[in-house]
Design brief:
Rossmann fold; four-stranded parallel beta sheet; disordered C terminus
């Protein structure tokens, strides 16, 4: 374990899932017990996943099958002026905390915000189930209207030449090319346009270069190289939705305030992010927001990751999530500025 400087008071935890809590179908050593100890401590936490191979409910089910006993995503009851029996300032009591946040749920929200209804989805069937509701229940194969966006996640069977080429053609405006039989030429429906073509958005669940897999065992390509290929070929910039974007982290952190869990803690101390990928979990937005960044040596971690050229070194390195929780909770209780209110969730 590396400890380059004194750890500040911990306000809350953001916890990566795959490679940190579990690798494939098995929990990392001691992770289940450590997770329950963390919950019992009362320090607020959220689980953050870049998975795009399955929907958020599927992620929750997977974790619960492993013994983590995670709460399902709530149906948030909206606050309105007509809501009765609530003192001024207590609207947040209506918001039940959402323990699991995924890049797929963030993609669905992004598409809803941008009014995108006809995406070309390179997603798994499970992930599509979470996106379909914001499309009005219409899937991407059910109509002939032009695509208004391209969404790329990690679904290996769709990241082949045919699908990537279709995505490329959509992005450059060649999605509807008709054959002119009379003169034997290929004629694009965009060939006569006078205004510059505006490419539909390329949306990426994340841009991880590689992931940890069970079959084959070890590191395998993530969606990042495929997204980069589309960016380069189509001369566009992808809208990356998941970790480590600042927006993703801000959205999750805001949930602590909506539920009231950080009210009594105030601004003292830092929010922790724990993950096994020094770039995808601990980079970019995590650095910008000043999160206390903890790297664990499980999952996709490889020796020397913490000192890799071009990355901001993590604040701490532990052998596992279990060791991290053990050390942090023990030292948190002895922190000179620690009070009982610092570790108690306000609403449950």
């Amino acid at each position: 374990m590396s400890k380059p400087r004194a750890r500040p008071l911990i306000r809350a935890f953001l916890i990566d899932i795959s490679g940190n809590l579990h690798v494939g179908s098995k929990p990392t050593p001691g992770a289940v017990e450590a997770f329950h100890r963390l919950r019992a401590s009362g320090i607020p936490f959220r689980l953050c996943s870049n998975t795009s191979k399955e929907s958020t409910p599927s992620v929750v089910q997977r974790l619960n099958n492993l013994g983590f006993n995670v709460k399902p995503s709530p149906n948030t009851r909206p606050f309105t002026d007509s809501t009765p029996d609530l003192p001024v300032g207590d609207a947040r009591r209506l918001h039940e905390r959402q323990e699991v946040w995924t890049s797929i749920s963030a993609v669905a929200q992004y598409m809803q915000n941008k009014c995108l209804k006809r995406p070309y989805l390179l997603l798994s069937p499970s992930a599509k189930e979470e996106v379909f509701p914001v499309l009005g229940g219409v899937n991407d194969e059910s109509c002939d209207s032009p695509y208004d966006s391209v969404v790329v996640g990690l679904v290996p069977e769709l990241l082949d030449y045919s699908h990537i080429n279709t995505a490329f053609r959509i992005l450059i405006g060649e999605q509807n090319v008709e054959s002119n039989v009379s003169d034997g030429l290929q004629k694009s429906n965009n060939s006569s346009r006078k205004a510059p073509y505006h490419s539909p958005p390329l949306i990426a669940t994340h841009k991880a270069k590689y992931i940890q897999t069970e079959n084959p065992v070890g590191l395998s390509l993530g969606p990042g190289p495929f997204v980069t290929a589309l960016e380069t070929a189509a001369n566009v910039k992808a809208h990356v939705i998941g970790k480590p974007t600042k927006l993703f982290f801000e959205t999750v952190i805001d949930d602590f305030y909506r539920t009231g869990e950080l009210d009594k803690i105030g601004r003292n101390g830092r929010i922790v992010i724990i993950g096994d990928d020094v770039e995808t979990d601990l980079g970019d937005g995590a650095v910008e927001l000043g999160l206390w960044r903890i790297l664990v040596k499980t999952g996709k971690y490889r020796a020397g990751d913490e000192a890799r050229p071009g990355i901001v070194p993590p604040d701490e390195v532990f052998s596992s999530f279990a060791e991290c929780v053990e050390r942090v909770l023990t030292e948190h209780a002895d922190h000179p500025t620690h009070t009982h209110a610092d570790a108690v969730q306000i609403w449950t």
